[in-house]
Design a protein that fits this description.
The chain is of the alpha+beta class. Helix content is 20%, strand content 33%. The protein has two domains: 3-159, no CATH class; 171-272, no CATH class. The protein has helices spanning 3-25, 77-84, 149-153, 200-209, 264-272; strands at residues 45-49, 55-61, 64-69, 73-74, 93-96, 112-116, 119-126, 133-137, 140-144, 171-175, 180-184, 187-192, 214-217, 228-232, 237-245, 248-253, 258-262. A nine-stranded antiparallel sheet has the order 4-3-2-1-6-7-8-9-5. It starts with a helix and ends with a helix.
Length: 276
Amino acid sequence: MRRRWVLNVAVVLVALALAGVAWLDYQRPADEWRLTDLAPDDVHVVSVQYGDGTRLVIERDHAGWRISEPVTARASHFHVEQLLRLTRAPSEHRYDSTELDPQELGLIPPKIKLTFNGTAVGLGDTDAVDGLRYAMVGERVHLIPDALTPLIAGPWWNFLDRHILEQHDEPVALTTPVLAMRLRDGDWVIQRGELAQRRGDAFMADWAGVEALMARPLDSPPETEPDVRVELAGGGHRRFAATQEDGEVRLVDLDSGVAYVLSQELRHYLLTGEER
């Protein structure tokens, strides 16, 4: 039962490790050839077209990065920043498209097509000798380090933000099967449950900062009453169901259908305030 959970966590850890390698590889002298002339800070829209037809669109707004396709959701700032490093990938070798056959290199059509502010980047096969990735921008073919490809080629939901509550969410009340709390005059008042009064502020600070091992959409979100309800300032709310399937321990957002995968111990703490 736990095999799938362990596998999913392993995939995330590998992606993060490879992203770290990519960061080190891209810290090269500024005068070296780069894949594009774009500066990551100037990019406001990123799209990824996958081979199965799925299209991921991520846009920057005043609050950070948000996914607008195939769902509307917060994007992981860390993973988007890693993706933007591709714009400055070092170009180890460069060729005019007439010198090679882009179709034979998997560039026409590309295995994955990315667009940064309208600048298209096609990713193709890897070079059999050096393991570099063929990439095409305009009519020029580049060979670039391949460290970011596992992140880009992975499922689109790798770019979902793993924080359960949004940065701008302002909780004013929390109810779980064993707890009820409400913010009054700047202090969290325990209305039901065994959580000590003095621990209320720290507990809600933990809720505000908690980050899941993984966040991904479910094909069929559960049709059930929420186990957790978080009321927000201004009248909004968040509703979560505590579910478990195939070894995954989750809090599922009943409105967005996004499942936040947690350890058993962390979910128990968020529901009860008790540390195991």
